Amino acid sequence: MDLTQLTAHELSDLLASREAGAVELVKAFFARIDQVEEDVKAFNIFTRDRALEQASKVDDKLARGEELGPLEGIPMAFKDNMCTKGVPTTCSSKILKSFVPPYSATVVEQLAQAGSIMLGKLNMDEFAMGSSTENSAFAKTCNPWDLERVPGGSSGGAVASVSADEVAFALGSDTGGSIRQPAAFCGVVGLKPTYGYVSRFGLIAFASSLDQIGPLTKDVTDCALVMNAIAGHDPKDSTSAPVDKPDFTKSLINDVKGLRIGIPREYFGAGIDPEVDKVIRQAITKLEELGAVVEECSMPHTEYAMPTYYLIAPAECSSNLARYDGVSYGYRAPESGDIVSMFKKSRAEGFGPEVKRRIMLGTYALSSGYYDAYYLKALKVRTLIKQDFDQAFEKFDILLSPTAPTPAFKFGEKSANPLAMYLSDICTVPVNLAGIPAISIPCGFAGGLPVGLHLMGKAFDEGTLLRVSYTFEQNTEFHKVKPSLGVK
Amino acid sequence: MKISKEQVEHVAMLARLELTEEEKQTYTEQLNSILEYAAILDKLDTQDVPPTAHPLPLHNVFRDDVVKPSISQEEALTNAPDAEDGFFKVPKIV
């Protein structure tokens, strides 16, 4: 049995029955990493010694006959924009290359509390800006299904690590699709929770009104287990929602009879790959067979979501990234003269091209004379987009679409044209603007590459998303298919 | 053209980014194409639509004014590019 192929809940069962130990698991995952990481390049840094030390403490507990929590002893990793005390946190940016946080993000604390074992930090598009992980300042993460293709982004390393069985699960972050689009490209489960459900404390900010942390897992059950560990109110995050969290595993119900699913026709517009379209239609038929009531609907403001997002997100980014000035942490350009030159040179040398492009765009959209025409206009259209969802959810329990209009694309295919790259997030972006939850689950293949089914739910109704996802998963086999990564 | 090279230079100054000539050229072209794309928003009449800056209806989240543990001065300075006598050190300002 290859331990690394198992889900977190299967590994937890093995630990509980003493058929495997925590150190054994960590060693098995590092053996797998040693086999495939040269090809996949998912990690920025490994925390091997620390992981083994933690795992031996879990084994001590097992030896004492103590019971473990559901994620205790389970190897995982974090996207490199979540602060880990004493462990470098770089956002895959030159400007934070040597940054070692003096504190941990709330999610990092929560998973440490749950006993999960961090194996390292995962590559990403610089500051989470991108859809292919090609914007990382450090490495080019490859799609485990086809090493000549991108894993998607911005949580490309996180998703590739799960897909390649280098970890049992990972945490990513999603500002416009950065959990769901790569999850679709690499055939794993990725949930963007409702805005405010998971604490953003210690998540290095990109666009604060859109960013949300969420799980990347091998199945829907693991997704619910990770949500149990990370959801909930955090006094350290003033945008954290003051709501009680349910037991998400209670939503793992294999039944969708009578559930109303809306299919917004605008999400199937021009640009959708015909094979992706076909796979999604088959998934819809499957859900109908299982008893769901499916009906087409219209979300008339969908076409405005992308331009709205590409004004709001850069505006927030330009403000958030003003802090990188070479003064209190991060890169400072050597011998850069007076203070303003020092700011300008440090930022010019520290940031990559996409980050600079968004800072420029956002600064322009917020600048005197243009604020009303661009930023304020976008905020107003955001209201209209949110209203589309409110109206749709009066009639439907969930909405369904492809996660991305195409399967994973090749390196360099879209990197020369920012607009073409932005459009790969066309189905995921509206969800962040509205602040609602959405999940991507494996639902088939197009040309041998995974396709993701995108389910969108009402705010704080992750339960229904998990229920539909679980039902689909229990009645299909797509989540069990693994990439045939050549093992050397 | 919505945005000229001079405007790009002005925005770069506001953003404290030193750009090369080549970058100025590229960003002028790329920002124009993105802004042209964004012009589709002008099709919508939003005069009476309220703006949404934030998805949750949370306002002025306060906590009690009590001292809580915080990172030490030493820890706060560990990532500083330059520090001296417990302070961040920067080039001469005045």
Keywords:
heterodimer; A: 488 residues; alpha/beta; Amidase signature (AS) enzymes; 11-stranded mixed β-sheet; globular; B: 94 residues; mainly alpha; Histone, subunit A; two-stranded antiparallel sheet; flat
Please explain how this structure is put together:
The complex is a heterodimer of chains A (488) and B (94). Helices cover 38% and strands 13% of the residues of chain A. Chain A is an alpha/beta fold and 488 residues long. Chain A has one domain: Amidase signature (AS) domain (Amidase signature (AS) enzymes, Alpha-Beta Complex), CATH 3.90.1300.10. Chain A has an eleven-stranded mixed sheet with strand order 1-3-2-4-6-5-10-11-9-7-8, sandwiched between helices. In chain A, helix 4 links the parallel strand 2 (75-79) and strand 3. The two termini of chain A are 18 Å apart. Chain B has a domain at 1-40: Glu-tRNAGln amidotransferase C subunit, N-terminal domain (Histone, subunit A, Orthogonal Bundle). In chain B, 35% of the residues lie in helices and 4% in strands. Chain B contains three helices and two strands, in the order αααββ. A two-stranded antiparallel ribbon of chain B has the order 1-2. The mean pLDDT of chain B is 93. Classes of the chains: A alpha/beta (488), B mainly alpha (94).
